[in-house]
Write a structure and sequence with these properties.
Blueprint lengths: L5 H12 L3 H18 L18 E2 L20 E2 L1
Helix pairs in contact: 1-2
């Protein structure tokens, strides 16, 4: 997944080395436009993690979620066998 945008990296280097805050801000705004031209999209969410268990696992809730989206049971509450 290498990024081959030498102009972008050159512009970033120049912006970092700029001492004037207003000029630096203008450079970063231009860099943002450069990025928007070649990035097709930025994901705003992600899928929940996939879990797989053997047939011997008992006690794992199918749809028990907390506010953070994780299971509300700890691994110690699972039984095996």
């Amino acid at each position: 997944m290498g990024l081959r945008q030498s102009g972008l990296f050159k512009a970033l280097k120049e912006a970092r080395e700029t001492g004037d805050a207003a000029a630096q801000k203008a450079k970063y705004e231009e860099i943002n436009k450069m990025i928007a031209d070649f990035v097709p999209g930025v994901p705003l969410t992600h899928a929940p993690p996939s879990l797989a268990f053997g047939k011997g696992v008992r006690g794992y809730p199918r749809r028990c979620r907390t506010r953070s989206g994780t299971s509300s049971r700890s691994a110690s509450e699972l039984s095996f066998g």
